[in-house]
Amino acid sequence: MGIDVRVNKMVYRDDTNTKAYVSAAIDGKFAIHNIKIVGGPKGDFVSMPQVNVNGRFHDIFHPISADAREELNSAVMKAYEQKVREAQEQSASSEDTQFGSFGTEGEDASSGGAEDESESDDLSEENDVALSM
Question: Is 77 among the domain residues?
């Protein structure tokens, strides 16, 4: 089974256990949206899209076999962990840029500004991670 996973949105809030929203495509034929990565007491886990019917939540999509569930969960978690690593690397590199140097004698101050501006544009863009398994 070919699974393509895209991390659509990372969640950086303390008032929720949801850490990310993910989409997956299976064999280029089926799409699953609103998969969540949730932080629980035993660690992060994958939560399938759900609907609330009369106060009870029901998965609207779920793998039937244990093998299919493991393959989907593995692909989703791998894409999420890659996105977390990229965010950490980007954060570390932006801190280096922000606090690294204040210029040296003889440098034109305006040349550093253009560099900073392009880096801030990179930080504001949506950087989806797509992963195929």
Answer: yes
H/E segment holding residue 130: strand 129-132
With residues binned 3-state (H G I as helix, E B as strand, rest as coil), the percentages for the chain, rounded to 5, are 40, 35, 30
**For the chain, percent of residues with pLDDT exceeding 90:** 63
Give a yes or no: residue 117 inside a domain.
Answer: no
Residue reference for tokens 């998969």 = 35
Reading the block at residue 92, the tokens are 């570390």
- The total number of structural domains that make up the chain: 1
pLDDT band of 96, cuts 50, 70, 90: low
Q: What is the DSSP string of 15-73?
A: T-SEEEEEEEEETTTEEEEEEEEEEETTEEEEE--EEEETTEEEESS--SSHHHHHHHH
In this structure, what CATH number is given to the domain that contains residue 84?
3.30.1120.40
Q: Quote the CA–CA distance of 42 and 103 in Å, as a whole number.
A: 47
Distance CA(102)–CA(13), nearest Å, equals 32
Residue 128 lies in a domain: no
Q: What is the mean pLDDT of the chain?
A: 81
Q: Is residue 118 part of a domain?
A: no
